[in-house]
Amino acid sequence: MSGQEISSNVNSRVLKTYQEARLQNTENLRKLVVDAAATLLQEEGPEAVTVRKVSQKMGCSTKIIYSLFVNKEGLAQQLYLDGCKLLANEFEATPQAADPVQHMMNLGETFWQFGQRYSSYYKLMFGGAFADFKPDEASVHGTVTAMRQLITVISHAQEQGLIPGHYDTESIVRIVWASLHGVIHLYMGGHLGDVQSAYAVYRQTLSLIANSLLPVQSP
């Protein structure tokens, strides 16, 4: 191999390494910005997540954040996807049960606890906390992935003939989700009293849904 070829290969490796490093640095910076935004989200609520406040927390100019996320909505989308991952992890950790009613009750409990533990993420994802933010296709896909456990238990129950009627799985999941979200949203809006009162309504709603979908089977 000639000296020119060796030099060319070395330059190629250096250029590739530089490009990889630049990409890595950009991804690291994006993560730091999202972490700062997530901290604001959890500590001060969705209204605190502005490009200006995130830049102040980062100690950088707003221009850097705009270059990475275009606008506040771009940052909100990333937080939304992070919230989907949190919800998916919570559902994955939910105890499974052989009885589909109990399994659905367990998943419903997880959804309530997520709304309590990650209330700011919940408001961002499902409560319209960012008025100008509308979930795009990637965000919607993230929601479906997060709800996979609920989709699975309903789908299996349908396959076993435990759920009467001719509703498709997606419709049933939306009915369950809308009903449970309605209780949480009313509670967050101050319409159901304190947390104990709201939780009692939530459990009653969850029980009604689960037992209506999965009536006791005759022996």
UniProtKB/TrEMBL annotation:
<dbReference type="Pfam" id="PF13305">
    <property type="entry name" value="TetR_C_33"/>
</dbReference>
<dbReference type="InterPro" id="IPR009057">
    <property type="entry name" value="Homeodomain-like_sf"/>
</dbReference>
<dbReference type="InterPro" id="IPR036271">
    <property type="entry name" value="Tet_transcr_reg_TetR-rel_C_sf"/>
</dbReference>
<dbReference type="InterPro" id="IPR050109">
    <property type="entry name" value="HTH-type_TetR-like_transc_reg"/>
</dbReference>
<dbReference type="InterPro" id="IPR001647">
    <property type="entry name" value="HTH_TetR"/>
</dbReference>
<feature type="DNA-binding region" description="H-T-H motif">
    <location>
        <begin position="50"/>
        <end position="69"/>
    </location>
</feature>
<dbReference type="InterPro" id="IPR025996">
    <property type="entry name" value="MT1864/Rv1816-like_C"/>
</dbReference>
<keyword id="KW-0804">Transcription</keyword>
<keyword id="KW-0238">DNA-binding</keyword>
<keyword id="KW-0805">Transcription regulation</keyword>
<protein>
    <submittedName>
        <fullName>TetR/AcrR family transcriptional regulator</fullName>
    </submittedName>
</protein>
<feature type="domain" description="HTH tetR-type">
    <location>
        <begin position="27"/>
        <end position="87"/>
    </location>
</feature>
<dbReference type="Pfam" id="PF00440">
    <property type="entry name" value="TetR_N"/>
</dbReference>
